[in-house]
Amino acid sequence: MKRRDFAGAALLLPLAGALHAQAPAWPQRPVRFILSQPAGAGPDILARYIGEQLARLWNQGVVVENRPGGQNVIGAQAAARSAADGYTFYYATTAAMVTNAFTFKALPYDPVKDFAPVRLVGRSPFVIATSSAAPFKDLAQALAAAKAQPGAVTIGTEGPKTFSGMLADSVAVKGGVKLNHVSYTKGPEAIQDLIGGRIQLVCLPDAALTAFIKSGQLRALAISTAQRQPDMPNVPALAETFPGFEYTGWNGLFAPAGTPADVVARVNRDLETVLRQPEVAQRLQTLGSLAEPKMSVPEFEAFMRGEHERWREVIKSLGITAE
Which of 5, 31, 65, 100 is buried most, with the most CB atoms less than 10 Å from its CB? Predict the structure, then answer.
């Protein structure tokens, strides 16, 4: 070999080594979403739908693994202990990542230290509704009745430490009234009692109530978003009664702490691609979630900090103690 050919080959060797050492493009195998809810629940349906959209982009499957129980603790703990290799994510709700920190004395996972925020997927509003046969035509009439007879107006929720329960209590505090809570483990049971006249109000996720509202069996009095929603244009936002008031749950994607930043950024961008599609946004709305079309990783990190501060104050103001 001539001297100059040998020198040229020598120069190429480091480049060849660098290319050989370069990590293969992500993802190289199926991606796993861990959930704290059972199969068939609202978050499960959402996660599977989002997973299908991402799988098309990645040319890899997205496997949803349900780990229900313990008020989200079992699933969150499993996700926190998963390998931070970019192939496991936690599809989480507000309860697991925020409010549990203030309603449990001790958690076997740390919502802040054990996870890296990836992206908000959607916000889930709640609706206060009454039976179409009930005398209340709007929220003001319901609050007036509760003020006239403290404790006489009953409201069905999912429990005092759940989102629906805390929303009902927040509305009562802001309205200066006392509502009589009736807790249900299943939303449909509360709806049937409302239709049957055994309770007077319910506060539940809008996805659970939409079909009954559209059929005329229930009358929506208020939705917990800051503005009225396109699918319920005649339903006032709670902010119209209590200016500045907004109360929504949400679902989002998190990675175990230590997951490569480039993978987190890639998933964030790909989720934006998916959520910007009109048909995806429409499908999410049908499932009770308002798609979040734009949110970077730093913006989601800032959102999470704000959520921790907001819910700390809400829970404190309602006098809820950790157990």
Answer: 100
The residue type of 110 is D
The values of phi and psi at residue 61, to 5°, are -70, 155
Q: What single-letter DSSP state applies at residue 40?
A: T
302 vs 293: CA distance, rounded Å: 17
Question: Beta strands 180-183 and 115-131: pairing type?
Answer: unpaired
- Give the dihedral of Cα atoms 303, 304, 309, 315; nearest 10 deg: 120
**283 in Cβ contact with 52 (< 8 Å):** no
d(CA 321, CA 84): 33
Rounded Cα gap, residues 210 and 206, in angstroms: 6
Burial class (CB in 10 A: 0-12, 13-18, 19+), 209: buried
The model's pLDDT over 119-171, given as tens digits with 9 standing for 90+, comes to 999 999 999 999 999 999 999 999 999 999 998 999 999 888 888 999 999 99
